[in-house]
Amino acid sequence: MGAGFDLAGRVVWVTGSSRGIGRGVAEHFAAAGARVVVHARTPDALADVTAALEGLGAEVLGVAGDVRDTDDLAAATAAIAERFGRLDGVVANVGGAAPGNLADLDVDRFRRQLDLNLTSAFATVQAAYPLLRESRGAAVLISATATTSATPLFGAYGAAKAAVEHLTGSLAAEWGPEVRVNCVSPGLIRTEGSMQAVFRGSEELAAKAGRTTAVGRVGETSDIAFACQYLLSDAAAYVSGAVLVVDGGPTEGPTQRILRAIAE
Fold first, then answer.
1. Which of the four pLDDT bands, split at 50, 70 and 90, describes residue 253?
2. What is the pLDDT of residues 126-177, one digit of tens each?
């Protein structure tokens, strides 16, 4: 990548980075020369990813805690400031879906989806804001393509992620010009979790799903990592409040779905 995309020497914090998309992003940043802060809920969960990033030659700090808890977040940002003296970027990656029929979904379970996906993102970037403002840094929130279409059984998740996208614009408007805030909206990404939960461990099913995208494959964590790198880098200096969709591109719209249903 050109110099504008360079993250070498920058301090970047990726929440939820012990596995999945977050780990892929953290490993990508480490390979790009960034000093990386990795995060998990428990210290034990950090050991493997910390060793992996150190193996790439990166300076690594592990912070543990619940990103919905302001005390845990305060401790994390204090540790970042003590170790590195600055913070240039944050990727608020923590989130997850708990499927449920909205007619029967317990209100507390709905609320937990909002806390996990929306409150955690807000609390993370708010805790990071003083350090980001000092460095004139940037934040990336993680949404999902479930925000733009009705997805049965994932209504709570989609609502929470839609709120993340709205929050992105509000943060960008309030925190600029000192801090840029953007959002990445992933489509279906290959992780250990999705391979088991979605593709039932089958590469054949993953390939079949990939053929539903314009690029002909499912996404990799590196696809999300490159998007995050762009938004945190100087190459995106004129980009704030944006939602970057990384889903391989659609191959059909409502009309095509209707015609397919009629044909069947």
1. confident
2. 999 999 999 999 999 999 998 988 888 999 999 999 999 999 999 999 999 9
What 48-51 contacts at long range (C-beta under 8 Å, 24+ apart), as own/partner pairs, is: 48/18, 49/17, 49/18, 49/19, 49/23
Q: Which residues are catalytic?
A: 157
pTM of the shown model: 0.94
* β-bridge mates for residue 181, sequence order: 139
**Rounded Cα distance, 262 and 88, in Å:** 52
Residue 192 identity: E
Tokens of 200: 């039932």
Q: What residue ranges define each of the domains in the chain, with the CATH number in brackets?
A: 3-263 (3.40.50.720)
Q: Give which of 251, 242, 189 is closest to 215, Cα–Cα.
A: 251
What confidence score (pLDDT) does residue 202 get?
Answer: 85
Both tokens of 134, joined, read 């000092």
